[in-house]
Amino acid sequence: MTASIPQRYATHPEQIPGMTTAELRDRFLIDDVFVAGEVRLTYTHHDRIVLGGAVPAATELALTGYPEIRSEYFLEHREVGIVNVGAAGTVTADGEVFELVTGACLYLGRGVRDVVFADADATTGEGARFYLFSAPAHTTYPSALVSPGEGTVRELGDQVTSNRRTLNQYIHENGVKSCQIVMGVTQLHPGSMWNTMPAHTHDRRTECYLYFDLPDDARVVHLMGERDETRHLIVADQQAVISPSWSLHSGVGTAAYSFVWAMAGENQAFDDMDAAPITDLR
């Protein structure tokens, strides 16, 4: 059993106005998602989500149990969605090997005991980077792999408003079944910068974003907070943001990018959101 998972405790919206930039980043930004040769996870008490990354780096990495979740093995009482944002890799789940190309999504349900991550080709120098999003599960659904473009694809936004984007829904109520995880990948079209506008909340679910495919010299300005008390985080490539259910979320980049969005909470209705028009924000 691995030593521990760093924890982020739940916050009340009234705490936000008094926080410094450093405090906001400590609470809501995960800047070390991917570390070569490690499974690196963070536990947030917002809906008891665990998120993080696995970077095999020419080795094999096992997903083990942790004291914080009081389980013999990681998925004893949990489910997990996995998206590969690196080169091709494999995930072996109780002996079954799943091959994940870049952008593929794998769902593993409660009860899968042995999970091992590896690169598809350890000789290329371009390794897999598996992003993990896990939530408690009350029952078992079968493992399922979805390749890029095989999920529900939605074309959203407009180039005129700089938010033309392709949204791939993978784990959702009309796709891969889960207890509570909803997960997918959105790719912005060239020349588009906003990942969603207007911003929105869904007080019934916590959502986490992993930004990727962002140039090294570019950043995303991620909006958060309440409508009349907004704050922001400056986010680099392959960093993740925890967005509590009470917080609005939207972001604009200095270049086009992609992001993994994942939610867990009261329901799985993707469109159950409350818009926060820009004219209402302060």
From TrEMBL:
UniProt-listed Enzyme Commission number(s): 5.3.1.17
Membrane-spanning residues: none
Obligatory cofactor(s): Zn(2+)
Keyword Glycoprotein found: no
Annotated keywords: Isomerase, Metal-binding, Zinc
UniProt cross-references to InterPro entries, sorted A to Z: KduI, KduI/IolB_isomerase, KduI_N, RmlC-like_jellyroll, RmlC_Cupin_sf
Free-text cofactor note: Binds 1 zinc ion per subunit.
Binding site for Zn(2+): 200, 202, 207, 249
Top-level taxon in the UniProt lineage: Bacteria
A Gene Ontology molecular function term of the record: 4-deoxy-L-threo-5-hexosulose-uronate ketol-isomerase activity
Keyword Isomerase attributed: yes
UniProt-listed PANTHER family: 4-DEOXY-L-THREO-5-HEXOSULOSE-URONATE KETOL-ISOMERASE
Function per UniProt: Catalyzes the isomerization of 5-dehydro-4-deoxy-D-glucuronate to 3-deoxy-D-glycero-2,5-hexodiulosonate.
Family the UniProt entry places it in: Belongs to the KduI family.
Name the record gives this protein: 4-deoxy-L-threo-5-hexosulose-uronate ketol-isomerase
Lineage: Bacteria, Bacillati, Actinomycetota, Actinomycetes, Micrococcales
Designated gene of the protein: kduI
